Amino acid sequence: MGFDVERFSRHRFGGHGGRLGLGYHAHGPDWVEMVLPWSADLIGDVEGQVLASGPIIALMDVATSIAVWAKRDAFVPHATLDLRVDYLRPARTGQAVIGRGECYRITRAIAFIRGQAHDGDPGDPVAHVAGTYMTLDA
Fold first, then answer.
1. What is the pLDDT of residues 47-69, one digit of tens each?
2. Within 10 Å of residue 59's Cβ, how many Cβ atoms?
3. Which of 19, 101, 106, 130 could bridge 67 with an S-S bond, Cβ 3.0-4.6 Å?
């Protein structure tokens, strides 16, 4: 049976993920891509029309969390221990942001993740992330 990424993502997210309009984009056995649609409501710099950092952080937290469940093939609670976000440039005005999260290793108690956010060209990312989640079933 396992964890069905598409089915999980189809039910739209509640809380901040629902408010942001996060949606499913693609996935593999240890990675997930989510999309953050551009919205004027998410602008942090009105003059420059730049998305605020919070929605991008939330996008990457969700994408990397779901990547952990994809790799484990199970929905098992975990808590974010560390999520480092390195911003490389502002997202382009009017462009959706794609967040790709990968879970590259799981130990008895820790899941290690990395990922990137881009607005159309993965070769020109908006941000990189790296972090850890503590599994709560250990």
1. 888 889 999 999 999 999 999 99
2. 26
3. 101
